[in-house]
Amino acid sequence: MTRKRMTHILVRSVSGGAAAALLAGCAVSGPPRFSNEGAGLPEGALVMIEGSGSANPLEPQLASALKRALTERGFCVADQAGYVIRYSLAERPARVALARENEFGSVDYVSYARTGLLLDRCEAQRLRVNVVAYDLAESTAAYRGAAEFNDCNFERAQFDELAQEIAQRAAR
Question: CA nearest 94: which of 108, 110, 109, 115?
Fold first, then answer.
């Protein structure tokens, strides 16, 4: 093999490896980001789950994942309870940010737009879930949480993981 041919093979190998490394970074999905506040729910609390009632086809998946996760954490899920867990979910393009005007007339971002879109393998979507657990006896929120994550398609395993984390964060 000539020196010129070996150089050509080496250059192709290196450039192919660099391209593969760049394309491997195109994964849209990542771990969910969470924010939460509140004292949380007491251990073994009797809870009921209420969705937003939206027509979002992902809502039933979240409802069943939350029920499983709360039950596994020792909570009793019932139709009537001292705590009600209300949730909502919204799906939007990940390149879109959510912002609101603050009292000073400037903007506070609730959710930043996703960056690094160049190597995406799809039109990335962001799923945002808001959860509030109300103490009905005290008329207060025992827990508030929000989570969001990006992907091309949302699957049951992601809802299970998300619900497990919400249940853990909602527990005292």
Answer: 115
Angle at 156 between CA 39 and CA 50, to 5 degrees: 45
**Count of CB atoms within 10 A of residue 65's CB?**
21
What pTM was computed for the model?
A: 0.75
Residue 129 has pLDDT above 70, yes or no: yes
Q: So what's the pLDDT on residue 111?
A: 86
Buried b (16+ CB within 10 A) or exposed e, 6-40: eeeeeeeeeeeeeeeeeeeeeebeeebeeeeebeb
Q: What is the CA angle 30-33-35, rounded to 5? A: 175
17: pLDDT strictly greater than 50? no
